[in-house]
Amino acid sequence: MTKNKWIDVTAPLVNGMVVWTNDIKVQIERRVSMDRGDLVNNSTISMGAHTGTHMDAPLHFIAKGKSIDQVPFDAIIGPTRVIEIKDKVSIKADDLKPYNIKRGERILFKTRNSPASWQNKNFAEDFVFITKGAAQLLAYTKVALVGVDYLSVGSPVDPEKGMKDVHEILLGAEIWLIEGLNLTDVKPGNYNLICLPLKLMNAEGSPVRAVLQRIP
Amino acid sequence: MTKNKWIDVTAPLVNGMVVWTNDIKVQIERRVSMDRGDLVNNSTISMGAHTGTHMDAPLHFIAKGKSIDQVPFDAIIGPTRVIEIKDKVSIKADDLKPYNIKRGERILFKTRNSPASWQNKNFAEDFVFITKGAAQLLAYTKVALVGVDYLSVGSPVDPEKGMKDVHEILLGAEIWLIEGLNLTDVKPGNYNLICLPLKLMNAEGSPVRAVLQRIP
Fold it and tell me: Under an 8 A CB cutoff, do A53 and B199 touch?
């Protein structure tokens, strides 16, 4: 590990934050409160497993797929590449070809979603997504991990093609997914990644904390 | 970072797991389910912020203390020492003196709590705790982080002395706390630690994922 500082690429978890259209709202409540005369502060948390910056395990879309507690630490701790995609609509196979992406790599895509979409309090349906072709290229290459900077790898505009196919291609190839990164403060290049989900047994996803450290 | 494997020292989060006596129960529910004919699996999570392996921020016991989103990454990522305490009742100042603990260190205590207490489905009130004297020594030394292997640094057997004082001494010195580690598979010695809480804004604690990597 170098001595460079860790950059937090995690969306803050707060009541009222944007969530996927039909997901439950985030509720963080101080059940016990010193302001109300209690001895301590003690909060409860309630949210969907795919809230804010989170991971999808294969089980999200693959009936017998691995669950989030089975993620290998090798997939989520180690060198990663942040690739900037300037296309304002989608991440296409042709966009990826110049980068010579290799088997086992951890790849994070920075798009116009960071920061624009995260500043929007409402769900932004028109975020930059991964196309079916790009998903197939990443699956064929057998990368270890893919990260995107809004709430899904696929687009909800065309649910069958955008959501189902793209998730199935990536998760079916056992590529672990980080969704909802905020890469606003991160330049394209090489980093050390740490992304740790909660140890939610037999769950198909989890909120995570994710940090990057520039590799000089 | 060495190439040694990461050891998971996090308690599994499951329905029915042991929680602090008066805390809310863990609920992980598959709200949307492929077994029931839905397109995907999608879970909701509900739990106390101090469930399983978790961190306490100063705000847990200190009215104007820092919240968990303010934890510096330097406190929770980096070299750490696992110290084994053989005392079956408590961690005392005298137990610590041979270890020459230094300012800024990250210290994890392994006791008989790992694994005995975690195997008990009911809350184990008689866990090995940190005494007021040991807390004062750690605060005076100004360590960065202290981790223990059951649900609290202090004992509930004597709530005022055991819980309030020990938390106030440690959190008042802005020592960040990990509680609920499972150190069963960890020998005493030197490790790299990564312990990441969720980014729960203005909360006094958070469940975490914590891993160790042996330093040769």
Answer: yes
